[in-house]
Amino acid sequence: MKNLIKKLALASLSLALGVGLYSKSNAEEETWSKDKPVEVKVGVVGEDTRVWDDIAKRLEGEGINIKIVSFTDYNQPNEALLSGDVDLNSFQHHSFLNNFLKEKKAEGEIVPIGDTLLAPFGFYSNNIKDIKDIKEGDTIVVPDDPTNETRALLLLQKNGLIKVKGTIEDLITKKDITENPKNLKIEELSADQTARSLSDKSVALAGINSGMAVDAGLSLKDDSVIAEEAGEELKPYINLIAARKEDKDKKVFKRIVEEYQSETTEKLLDKLYGGNQIEAWNFDK
Q1: Given pLDDT bands bounded at 50, 70 and 90, which one contains residue 285?
Q2: Which one of 104, 118, 143, 267 is CB 3.0 to 4.6 Å from 280, fit for a cystine?
Q3: In sequence order, what DSSP letters do the residues of 140-204 get, joined into one string?
């Protein structure tokens, strides 16, 4: 009996020590320094990584090594996050993420951990200077992903070219157009192809996401024919940093969000984009 009690006591001690070691191991994962750096892979879309490059440079001295992973397709960074190929991503707005998770039947698997910027959507053209120049039967290109097609069609409606059924809270496609007085041809293209469509002489307008527009050398302020204006109705389109749900409280991720949401980043956005992309983490303040 004494031997049994002794064995049980030793087992309990071993278990306690094991838990202690496990806790210490977890704690070590959440500590970093210049001598013991931690790598964080951040998925983005497009070639313009200047803001993240600057943030990475600022955090490098603290031992946080940010590795930028660039994608060309808007669905890839979320898939990469779910699979663990990246640790965070920063390319999408709230509406896009919600729709992706709904279609994927993965609600709650990816969560926002910090707002970043608002990038107003615009229509561009190589063929016209004003929407008054739109002619009967002209072709207008819009992105084919649900949230940004909604955004594009509502902007066309706001400028009197069409009328649609639905609001910013809905997912609208060209099938929801109720009035089209000029019989415009609405062509849906992948977001990474919309800028290229400008070279087509038959395209009067092309709706281009901000990131793709920047990559194509276009300025919302100087080159767009029509564009969104920042306001309360655009809150669903505030961009964000996202993580897997199990990682949302990691201290290193919170530090990255903190550095992104800094006055230094705000000044950099203004310097680089001159109002084309604006800070949105103080949107409600």
Answers
A1: low
A2: 118
A3: EEEE-SHHHHHHHHHHHHHTTS-EESS-TTS---GGGEEE-TT--EEEEE-GGGTTGGGG-TTEE
- The model's confidence at residue 18, banded by pLDDT at 50, 70 and 90, is very low
Sign of CA dihedral 269, 271, 272, 276: positive
State the CB neighbour count (10 A cutoff) for residue 235: 16
Residue type, 143: P
CA atoms within 13 A on the CB side of 48: 16
Q: Report the alpha-carbon distance of residue 110 to residue 243 in Å, rounded.
A: 6
For residue 225, which amino acid is it? V
**Amino acid type, 117:** L
Half-sphere exposure of 250 (CA within 13 A, CB side): 24
Read off the pLDDT of residues 156-210 as tens digits, 9 standing for 90 and up. 999 999 999 998 878 899 999 999 999 999 999 999 899 999 999 999 999 998 8
**Residue with structure tokens 């009197």?**
160
Q: In what order do the strands lie in the sheet with 122-124?
A: 185-189, 139-143, 203-208, 122-124, 226-227
In terms of Cα–Cα distance, which of 275, 254, 247, 239 is closest to 44? 239
Please name the residues in contact with 245: beta carbons below 8 A apart, sequence gap of 6 or more.
108, 109, 110, 111
Taking only the tens place, the pLDDT of each residue in 27-63 is 446 889 989 999 999 999 988 999 999 999 999 999 9
Tell me the per-residue pLDDT of 246-277, one tens digit each, with 9 for 90 and over. Answer: 999 999 999 999 999 999 999 999 999 877 88
